[in-house]
Amino acid sequence: MASKPQTVMQRMFARKTIAQVQRETASSELKRSLGKWNLLLLGVGCIIGAGIFVRTGSAAALHAGPAVMLSFVVAGLVCAFAGLCYAELSSTLPVSGSAYTYSYTTLGEFVAWIMGALLLLEYGLAASVVAVGWSGYVVSLLADFGLVIPAQLTGPTGQMLMRDGAPVLVNGATVTAIFNLPAFLICMALALLLMVGVSESAKVNNIIVAIKVSVLAAFILVGGFIVLSNLNEYIATNWTPFIPENTGDGEFGVEGIMRAASIVFFAYIGFEAVSTAGQEAKDPKRDMPFGIIGSLIVCTVIYMLVAAIMTLLVPYASLNVPDPVAVVVDSFGPQWAWLAKTIKVGAIIGLTSVVLVLMYAQTRIFYTMARDGLLPKIFSRVHPKFHTPYINTMLVGTITAVAAGFFDINVLGDMTSVGTLAAFAIVCLSVIYLRRAAPDLPRGFSVPFYPITPALGILSCLYLITTVPYNVLVFFIYFLIGAIALYFIYGMRNSNLQHDQMMDDAPDMGEFPGPVHDN
Fold first, then answer.
1. What is the DSSP letter of 51?
2. Which of 75, 380, 482, 503 is disulfide-compatible with 261, CB 3.0–4.6 A?
């Protein structure tokens, strides 16, 4: 066991040793039952949802226009850099905690704490974004059956509600939202589900992924058929110009494409969520890279196809809504009304699974940090009956529910993107450090074109951070200042590593609530 550091700097950058990480991995009671296809489906299940069903519309309507397709290329390329780095780290350090544990082992405790704070933005607020999108599809579907939720209870506090590019009118007057009730309720409901245990739903996740992919395939096939039936007219009407003229402040043009890339970027965090299942993979060195890179490639192709059809079929300015796919399928015509309802149901089912997986990942990050002493031990307390970290699960549920109920989806999405980009940059830096500090460490997967790939990952992530609105950057800076202060007030004083003790007696928390286990 490492000796206790003496100076503040030594304490800040104290690291878990490789032996400690391997010992924690060996002591885990989590069942190694996930194969490479399970992990790929886990990544696809998390990626497909937020980007396609929710954020694509606002990225096109406000920033890129039809050229949002190019934004997906940019975001996918940046994700490829980060994904390759994740693949190397996950095959080298296949442990629970994902980027948090990677940082603890390579760059030290202080950076690991910062990473934990970033992951709260990445997972917690991402769940809120998807919950707002879920709310939009539920409201749209219920309206198809004549069930109308009061408009005041379907949007962020204080915001005038918009639909199809125009204000929502009730009795001839515009509507200002009070609270997004459906988004709040789904977060709390899923928190309760996670708290009581969802081992039964492990056998349902692959079915949910199949439903989402089938729904999108139907959207692509039917939408593509409609587009091809009159392609020239659709191009002339909705794709001319393909890249709208820049109007300043990240709106359209090349600048808008880059701004939109930062918006849709967070939708790719599904491949990162795969790394949180490191202790449950059958063969982490082989299967983790396959799941991460494979899910990234599959979903990038799907994203671009869906974005092309969306922007061809309806004017991009109409897509600044939480449920852009619903807007598009409603434009198919009355003969396709049955398909519109089917796609909305599929979107709701899919988004539910995304919120569940994101909230799961956040609770396990908190659990791991609490085990390390950086958060109060109460957050690692496991329920004696349900075998879940029930207290921190309810905390995560409350945070995501409040954010989804009160805040605008675009603000939440921007905050998520900044946290995600910063976390990915640290992961790329961790690869560089570990290559230099432990060059002989066995690696199941090595980043190609090292050190160019991780360096490009860092630079591209930092560049996209600069494209987000100024007020979001200000929030991010204050958030980091608060996180740093909390580290010195609590984290450093209570860290197990500082007291030469690491918790090797992790209780069994049950199985991952996502993929089907191979039999």
1. I
2. 75
Beta-bridge partner residues of 186 = none
Whose CA is closest to 253, among 239, 241, 243, 267? 243
Spell out the per-residue pLDDT of the chain, length 519, in tens.
Answer: 444 546 767 667 676 666 666 565 555 544 566 777 887 877 777 677 666 777 888 889 889 899 998 998 888 888 888 888 887 887 777 555 467 877 887 788 888 889 888 888 888 888 898 899 889 889 888 888 888 888 888 888 878 776 655 677 766 778 788 889 999 999 999 998 888 765 545 556 667 777 877 888 888 999 999 999 888 999 999 998 889 888 877 788 889 999 998 888 867 776 666 666 655 667 766 777 788 778 888 888 888 888 899 999 999 988 888 788 888 888 888 888 888 888 888 888 888 888 888 888 888 888 888 888 888 888 878 877 777 788 888 999 999 999 999 988 888 888 888 988 998 899 899 899 888 888 887 777 788 888 999 999 999 999 999 988 888 899 999 999 999 999 888 888 888 776 664 444 444 444 434 433 332
d(CA 218, CA 224): 9
- Number of residues that this document lists for the chain: 519
DSSP characters over 399-462: HHHHHHHHS-HHHHHHHHHHHHHHHHHHHHHHHHHHHHH-TTS--SS--TTTTHHHHHHHHHHH
Tokens representing 401 are 């529910």
Residues 138 and 90: their CA atoms lie apart, in Å, by: 37
Instruction: Provide the whole-model pTM.
Output: 0.79
Distance CA 373, CA 351 (A): 33
> For residue 427, what are its two tokens?
């992961």
How far is 2 from 500, CA to CA, in rounded Å?
Answer: 7
Number of other CB atoms surrounding residue 261 within 10 Å: 27
Q: Which residue has the tokens 């009160």?
A: 406
CATH topology for the 29-498 domain: Amino acid/polyamine transporter I (1.20.1740)
Give the integer Cα–Cα distance in Å for 2 and 272: 30
- Nearest Cα neighbor of 155 from 382, 174, 515 is 174
CA-based nearest residue to 443, from 84, 30, 34, 103: 84
Report the alpha-carbon distance of residue 483 to residue 477 in Å, rounded.
Answer: 10
Residue 161: which H helix or E strand, with range?
none
Distance CA(312)–CA(255), nearest Å, equals: 22
